[in-house]
Amino acid sequence: MPEVTPHHNAPEAERVEPRCPYFGSCGGCRFQDIAYAEQVARKHRRFTEQLSDVVPAELLEEAIFCPSKAEWRYRNKMEFSFSPATGELALGMHKSGSYWNVIDVEDCLISPEPFGEVMSAVRDFAARSGIDAYSSKKKSGFWRHLTLRWSETQAGVMALLITTPGERGVVDPLFEGLLRDIPCVRSLYWGINSKISDVAIPDELIHIGGEEFLIEEIDGVKLRVYPLNFFQPNLSQTRRIYRDMASLLPRTESLRIVDLYCGTGAIGLYLAFHAPGVSDVIGVEQDEGNIASAQANKEANGITEARFVATNIENRLKEDMMFLRRFSPGLIVLDPPRPGLHKKVYGPLVESGARYIFYLSCNIKSLSFDLQQIFARSRDYEIRHIGVYDMFPHTPHFETLVILEKQVRDSS
Ligand SMILES: C[S@@+](CC[C@H](N)C(=O)[O-])C[C@H]1O[C@@H](n2cnc3c(N)ncnc32)[C@H](O)[C@@H]1O
């Protein structure tokens, strides 16, 4: 085992030889020296601890825990960074605990195998160019990030190269080479980022060649993936979650769904496609690019009864408290980012009249807080089901699905 300070206190018996040569120096996959079954047990314990104040013990015990089918090669998107910090130009992951240092990575074992070939072609080209990688300390340099996405359906790669502003002639030979020499490269973009902040989000996005988007298919539902769209990173676990949601849908005649934080509309469209009782879907999401993709996804799947609204949910609710109620939802799907729901959402959510709430959370702490807030405002909602899904082996993260049902009180 490499000489590294472990990020945990696992006893020797639970530890395994880490497979990745970068383990310990790379900032990701901190738990890969713990046997996967033990990683899952630890996540299970954390789930129970975090929710024990808000969920009755018997419901916690009944929660369905779903480990990831794939322990390796499960991520369909990776953001790699260029760095000049070590002298030679490197392309890979940030060193543990460092903003400056990047470890040169040949193959990241949680990402699809073809990513290694694309990275190596891009790294070699950038190194031969004689142009520096961007340094946020010096505020100069050119090469910044390489974001790679993978479609399992197409067995294809989308590459987004992010640089500071520069001549197209510098990058064109690289793009031509990628499209010509690596058959699985299906889509190429160049992103230009002139900001100082070191995030892989460009100010300008140029489609260079190949297809404009990848397509991922989940149980017959076709979903477009553009370079900056949100898309769940572990496809087989996402499929599992969507299937569970569809099977747990109430068998009503006509169910109107409001899908909040809908991204590219994946959940609402999946449910509309697979559950005959769904009569209408309204997706709400603040990112206009995601909403444009949601609209295209609706058309590609021949779903007529769906519409998508581009708005910041809490700002919209500040202006119009009745925004949710006006849709008369039978079910509200919540899939917020890590901070969870904004405090402006709780009141209108419980006042919406929705009989069901499906809350999918990527942060157990914010889920626990949000459930407390919901229960503090309404005693009518009860938990019907909890599913826990490990989307991210070797990391501390997991997804939790909580299904709430509103009790119809006898008014007599
Ligand atoms: C976890 S993703 C959910 C995506 C989608 N449900 C799916 O399954 O693909 C969270 C989404 O919420 C959006 N978002 C974040 N804050 C928001 C806000 N305040 N109002 C509206 N949308 C927001 C993000 O742009 C992102 O697409």
What does the model show?
By secondary structure, the protein is an alpha/beta fold. The protein folds into 2 domains: 77-217, OB fold (Dihydrolipoamide Acetyltransferase, E2P); 234-406, Vaccinia Virus protein VP39 (Rossmann fold, 3-Layer(aba) Sandwich). The chain contains 10 helices and 17 strands. The strands form 3 sheets. The protein has an 8-stranded mixed sheet with strand order 1-16-17-15-14-11-12-13, sandwiched between helices. Strands 4-3-2-5-6-7-8 form a 7-stranded mixed sheet. The radius of gyration is 23 Å and the shape is globular. S-adenosylmethionine is lined by residues 230, 232, 261-264, 266-267, 285-287, 290, 312-314, 335-337.
Number of helices: 10
Determine the fraction of residues in helical runs and give it as a percent range.
25-40%
> If you average the pLDDT, what whole number results?
93
CATH architecture of the largest domain: 3-Layer(aba) Sandwich
Widest β-sheet, arrangement of strands: 1-16-17-15-14-11-12-13
Integer tally of domains: 2
SSE run: HHEEEEHEEHEEEEHEHEHEHEHEHEE
Please report the first level of CATH classification, the CATH class of the largest domain.
Answer: Alpha Beta
Find the structural class using helix and strand composition.
Answer: alpha/beta
CATH superfamily of the largest domain: Vaccinia Virus protein VP39
CATH topology of the largest domain, anyone? Rossmann fold
Oligomeric form: single chain
Number of distinct beta strands: 17
